Amino acid sequence: MRIEVDAVAGTLESSDALVRVSPAEELRIEVTSTVEAQFGAEIRRTVAEQLDRLGVTEGLISVQDKGALDFVIRARVQGAVLRGAQARPDWRKL
Amino acid sequence: MSGWQGRVPTDAVELAGLVPFAGPAPSTQADKDARRARKVVGSLTEAISRSGLGDGDTISFHHHFREGDLLILQVLAEVEALGIRGLTLASSSLNACHGDVVGYIERGVVSRIYTSGMRGTLAARISRGGLLPHPVQVHSHGGRAALMASGELRPKVAFLGVSACDEFGNANGTSGASRCGSLGYALVDAMFAETVVLVTEQVVAFPNTPAVIRQNRVDLIVVVERVGDPSRINVGATRTTTNPRDLLVARRATDVVEHGGFFVDGFSIQTGSGGAATAVTDYLGERMERRGVKAGWALGGITGSMVALHERGLVGRLLDVQSFDLVAASSLERNPGHTIVSASEYASPAAKAACVDELDVVILSALEIDLDYNVNVLTGSDGLMMGASGGHCDTAAGAKLVVVVAPLIRTRIPTIVERVTTLITPGSNVDVLVTDYGVCVNPRRPAVAERLAAAGIKVTTIEALFARALEICGRPRAVETTDEIVGVVRYRDGSVIDVVRAVAS
Predict the structure, then answer these.
(1) Site from A16, A31, A35, A63 to mutate, B interface, most B CB atoms within 10 angstroms
(2) Which residues in B lie closer than 8 A to residue A34 (C-beta atoms)?
């Protein structure tokens, strides 16, 4: 999936994450987190895995995490990517 | 001849070593106005100068205004202007409003700190190391009174903020504009400090009774515009919660209180700070009415909810070391059954009697609790200091049923850990843990577990709750620390129970 436009998903509420995506030549992932010290590596891995699953190979992906659990991070990344790719996914298949 | 000379046989052996009367002291008897006003000085600077405060001395404060304290920074500014350095800052606690203390440490005005806890930027900055030349001494509220009694902590000058006092120094926290309610922590400073300076917003007519801080302990009085903002007493740790998760935990904790074995007529209770702990009081009222059980007394940080139970006749007496909100502060004035206890009477192991030893039930919070039920209320899981020892270990040591309430997970951080980051209260003093995912009982208290099970409360194990937390959050990486010790945790008897090491950057 290719990021065509700037898009955003999520919030900056506690236990959520705000994910922004923008078109770019290369894939770049930026993560900041309130639980960086304890879960930084795990969050990066979750984001990378979800991007991989969605077939995103280029674009700027910025994640501002506020202590979200993994399923929340995956959902927010997916939401932002689908919006950025202007995709009309078949939700039943996701 | 005034009739007193020549009466005393000064050479009589029976009077050896005694001094004969030499006439009435001239002193200030003649000018009664001057005598009455002799303690009142024009400015903080003058009070500091007259107190004789010098380099390396200890200054002390109370934290009854909590996040609304305005006095510590005012005094430090004047102290610095006078060129006094290397002070020990001994406040009964420090809060997020004291972030500017960092500058006074950097400039050498403050070099040691004694406190129950710290929050905000001051706490974070000290926790990262390289700031204070000596580690912070973290004590409990009872432990502070004991450290003063032992002489380790003896303030040269106590600056005690009050809303009003008379010219002799009779003060309470229930008259004047900025009322903080109880002055329980300040009473210890008034007892032990070499010089007691009352910093007041208002001087009222003598006698300002009923007085809590009394004239015979007060040396100097200075009027300032503001000592504190009472509207900021119940923000942060003492807030009231509407968070449904906190309310769920509170309701379960109330079940535990009801069925834990001590819910009988005349029982005593304390609820600590923290959303869920304070919310227990509201639920407790319903259970007491339904079961026809009344509490003899409640202790501690007194909340508006506890005052409501008292006024409905459900709690006989309130013993108040600090008022957690303005309702509690005004109740002190109105309700004769609501009285102040000093931190020494409240919880000091060195006192000849402490209220905590008579407690039946206490509800306490936790930042972390480990598989041995040890509790941390000082450092966050990131290793930074962000809380306070408070009365945690004091009440846990005294009460017959010690219930810790906490959400299982706070923004991905499990509350249950293998080993607490910092030890404040030993697990042998903790009986029950109530979380939003279940209740567990310390194996040391099988009778409590049986009673809860018999009442139909589902009891699990702390290991099962720990496993559930890891399943949801993943396993957090341990925080890296350096060798530098930034905090020394003193148990209530003064012994060192743990140290806090600087967080590696």
Answers:
(1) A35
(2) 411
